[in-house]
Write a structure and sequence with these properties.
Oligomer: heterodimer
Number of domains of chain B: 2
Helix content of chain B: over 70%
Shape of chain A: elongated
Structural class of chain A: alpha+beta
Distance between the termini of chain B: 47 Å
Largest sheet of chain B: none
Radius of gyration of chain A: 30 Å
Largest sheet of chain A: 6 strands, mixed
CATH class of the largest domain in chain A: Alpha Beta
Number of helices of chain B: 8
CATH superfamily of the largest domain in chain A: ATPase, nucleotide binding domain
CATH class of the largest domain in chain B: Mainly Alpha
Strand content of chain B: under 5%
Distance between the termini of chain A: 58 Å
CATH topology of the largest domain in chain B: Monooxygenase
CATH architecture of the largest domain in chain B: Up-down Bundle
CATH topology of the largest domain in chain A: Nucleotidyltransferase, domain 5
Order of helices and strands of chain B: HHHHHHHH
Number of helices of chain A: 15
CATH superfamily of the largest domain in chain B: HscB, C-terminal domain
Structural class of chain B: mainly alpha
Number of strands of chain B: 0
Number of strands of chain A: 25
Strand content of chain A: 15-25%
Number of domains of chain A: 4
């Protein structure tokens, strides 16, 4: 396609025949890079032949940061300068992470409390964007020395539940090292692509991702080239490590060991880890630890891990139910993450779904391979005529309206890119500025959703409440990133913002929010009804008092007293009353003021705007 | 070349009528997505990318609108200059209100446990059948240019659609979802 051949300003004058783009799985524990080389897409090894780059960076001096295995070795002796799991810090606020077990040993720069969490290291202050950038740099170096060519772009994978802030910061990390991001791709989608499921006409795919420390299940629906995430679920505190701990506990129990010093405990855990690996291929493994010798059989392993396995299946069950499907509706199950190599996991999955999961591709590499395939298509090496991935918004995007309610502008699971506009109006007479609050989440109240950004539209010409028309437009691009624009239609005054919030949500929080929106749908409706009744009442009271100020002469003394009494009654109940009570009293005010309103209408028949205000309030 | 100033029907090369083949619409949608999606311009200039984002946003909106019968009906009326947001009593008519009240009452009278599931299922089927009849009526009125009548049927469809959502919510509640 001709358009893809346009070279960048300052770039090479002649485009090479084969353009180099990579797929990057930027993981919490390990990261990988893949590219198309000859026969197909492969994960690229570093100079020592390793495919997995530990996502760890050591900043011990002002020289180059140390990334990967070498950094991992510094975790114990240089913990304050060695940052692991930086992905968990992306899009988060300092207050959310500074006291968590993974990060509490760091010194954070309190000056930057509002920005991304910044860790003070010997090589300076480092935030998660910079750490991610250093990991990306190491991957790019691996790729360039392996392919002996300069990269022109990358597809980077992110968890499906990553919110706007987390996606933005992932992109920012790439920008820091001048890496062009062709697309952010959802991890489960990448896994499905690796298996070529995107070329099927339709079907439902469950991606079962059991990593070292986290567990995610995503249900994707594929219809005519559109991948839609129907539901996600998981457990951020469940992973392969838990299986190691169970084996370690078993050995301690059998050997009659009560307490272990730190060193021996670490030794035991690494021992347990190797036993776990061996049990994938053999029925029984001999154990020799601190003078105790015995063995652990595969059956025994199955028995002690039964509860963990049950938890993973329960999550699958819930995700399927959330998507309003039955287990029979699932056409394929894709296994991702090293922990899915365990036969106990595979067997349980096969038993629950009634069919064998897809395991041909190395579960550590499958996401990176999918990203590499997509990168190759996007850079223009492969015909994309029958290949298109359409993603959806993972959470609803809304705006705060009166009474701290959320008006959803782009609902969850809308195909992106998408632009939607909605018109709003002013609440008070003469209001000249409007504050816009952008939120993300499924709940009805602002306080239950995640705040993404705030901005103001100023210089609205003073008008009667409800007369100004402000159009707010939300635009989400193909990477899931949001920008918001507000425009006052009579003056064409605009304000806009690229939403770049300072912190975001983790999988757990999203899970909780979705669950809560389920559980609270009813309570939320009642809260909404109450808030709406209160707003309606307040608007009526405001309208009447401003009408009285202008046209008080149209009121008889009796009428005025009646209206005041009704208003006083309403005000007394305003905070504690139910929506029905408030509504009733609002109606009462309407009734006693209807004569007044009618006389005003007659008087101001020419002044359409004021007439409308009263009229609107009365409806 | 597809443009943002084309209306949704023109965008998909479809005639402006309520009756449309969703399979053809979807096939055309996919064709246009493949042509216009920002992924096609991943390596292109910012301006091209921006245009692609705008164009596919418009395309997605057009597809969602035309695919859903109720949204399609509203869009069709708005193309003919009718404001579907404003509803007056005259638009509705007494018989519609009575029918709605009856349907709603039968929904509310149902027991609040799963013994009502069979009845909900029956009610759902009933409402869906009514919607099919209304849709046929709507298509006929639009093609004959009887837009006032069409708008009336549109509001009836709106009522039925809302009712359907309530029935489904009732089902979920009773199933403990």
């Amino acid at each position: 396609m001709a358009l893809l051949q346009i070279s960048e300003p300052g770039g090479k004058s002649s485009a090479p025949a084969h353009r180099i783009a990579v797929g990057i799985d930027l993981g919490t524990t390990n990261s990988l890079v893949s590219a198309s080389c000859g026969s197909g897409v492969e994960v690229l090894p570093d100079e020592h032949g390793n495919y997995l780059l530990p996502s760890i960076v050591n900043y011990s001096s002002s020289t180059e940061p140390v990334v990967g295995i070498a950094a991992k070795e510094r975790l114990v002796d240089d913990p304050k300068n060695t940052i692991a799991s930086a992905k968990r810090l992306l899009g988060r606020a300092l207050s959310e992470v500074s006291n968590t077990p993974l990060f509490q040993h760091f010194d954070f720069d309190q000056e930057q409390a509002d920005a991304a969490p910044a860790i003070i290291t010997a090589a300076g202050v480092k935030n998660p964007i910079q750490v991610s950038a250093d990991i990306l740099k190491a991957l790019v170096d691996t790729a360039e020395s392996c392919l002996k060519a300069k990269l022109e772009g990358a597809v980077i994978t992110v968890p499906a539940y990553f919110n706007d802030a987390q996606r933005q910061q992932t992109k920012d990390a790439a920008k820091l090292i001048d890496l062009k991001v062709l697309r952010l791709l959802n991890e489960p989608t990448a896994a499905a692509v690796a298996y070529g499921l995107d070329s099927k006409d339709q079907g439902n795919v469950v991606v079962f991702d059991l990593g070292g420390g986290t567990f995610d299940v995503s249900l994707l629906s594929l219809q005519k080239g559109v991948f839609e995430v129907l539901a996600t679920g998981g457990d951020t505190a469940l992973g392969g490590d838990d299986f190691d701990h169970l084996i370690a506990d078993r050995i301690k129990q059998a050997a009659g060991i009560q307490e272990l010093n730190l060193m021996d405990n670490a030794k035991l855990l690494s021992h347990a880890n190797s036993i776990k690996h061996q049990l994938s291929d053999s029925d029984s493994v001999a154990v020799d630890f601190l003078g105790w010798s015995g063995s652990i059989s595969a059956d025994e392993f199955k028995q002690i891990t039964e509860d963990l396995i049950k938890r993973t299946i329960l999550t699958c069950r819930r995700v399927i139910r959330d998507a309003k499907l039955e287990v029979e509706d699932i056409d394929n199950i894709v296994m991702v993450g090293g922990s899915t190599r365990m036969p106990v996991v595979r067997e349980a999955v096969e038993e629950y779904f009634g069919k064998a999961p897809l395991t041909d591709i190395d579960p550590d590499k499958v996401v990176a391979i999918g990203a590499g395939i997509q990168a190759d298509v996007l850079i223009g090496n492969k015909s994309a005529d029958d290949f298109l991935l359409l993603d959806v918004t993972p959470l609803s995007l809304g705006i705060e309206t009166m009474g701290e309610l959320v008006e959803k502008i782009i609902p969850r699971n809308t195909t992106i890119p998408v632009a939607k506009a909605q018109e709003f109006t002013t609440f008070k007479d003469g209001q000249t500025a409007m504050s816009l609050h952008v939120v993300q989440g499924e709940r009805e109240l602002v306080s239950d959703c995640r705040s993404l950004a705030r901005f103001e539209l100023r210089d609205i010409p003073p008008m009667v409440a409800g007369a100004a028309k402000i159009r707010v437009t939300y635009q989400v691009d193909a990477d899931g990133l949001l920008s918001v624009m507000a425009e006052e239609l009579s003056t064409a005054k605009t304000a806009e913002i690229q939403v770049k919030p300072s912190y975001g949500l983790d999988a757990d929080a999203i899970e909780q929010m979705l669950q809560a929106s389920h559980d609270n749908a009813k309570a939320d409706m009642e809260v909404r009804a109450l808030r709406e009744a209160q707003i309606e009442a307040q608007q009526l009271i405001d309208a009447i008092s401003s009408a009285k100020a202008v046209d008080g002469n149209l009121l008889s003394g009796d009428e005025s007293l009646q209206i005041d009494a009704a208003i006083a009654q309403l005000q007394a109940l305003f905070e504690e009353g139910t929506s029905a009570q408030i509504h009733e009293l609002t109606e009462e005010i309407n009734r006693v003021s209807s004569g007044f309103a009618a006389r005003r209408m007659d008087l101001h028949i020419g002044e359409a705007l004021k007439g409308e205000t009263i009229d609107e309030v009365e409806q | 070349m597809q443009q943002i100033n084309q209306n949704y029907f023109q965008l998909f090369d479809l005639s402006e009528s309520f009756d449309l083949d969703v399979d053809i619409l979807t096939a055309k949608y996919r064709e246009l997505q493949i042509e216009m999606h920002p992924d096609k311009f991943a390596a292109a200039e910012e301006q091209e990318k921006l245009r692609a984002v705008q164009m596919t946003s418009y395309l997605n909106e057009a597809y969602t609108t035309l695919k859903a019968p109720l949204k399609r009906a509203a869009y069709l009326l708005s193309l003919h200059g009718l404001d579907v947001e404003s509803v007056s009593q005259n638009d509705l008519g007494m018989d519609l209100l009575m029918e709605q009240m009856q349907l709603r009452e039968s929904l509310e009278e149902l027991p609040k446990n799963d013994s009502a599931l069979a009845e909900l299922e029956r009610l759902k089927k009933d409402v869906k059948e009514r919607m099919v009849v209304k849709q046929t009526g709507f298509a006929a009125e639009v093609s004959e240019g009887e837009l006032v009548n069409a708008k009336k049927i549109f509001h009836e469809l709106q009522f039925l659609h809302k009712l359907l959502l309530e029935i489904e919510a009732g089902e979920e509640q009773r199933l403990g979802y």
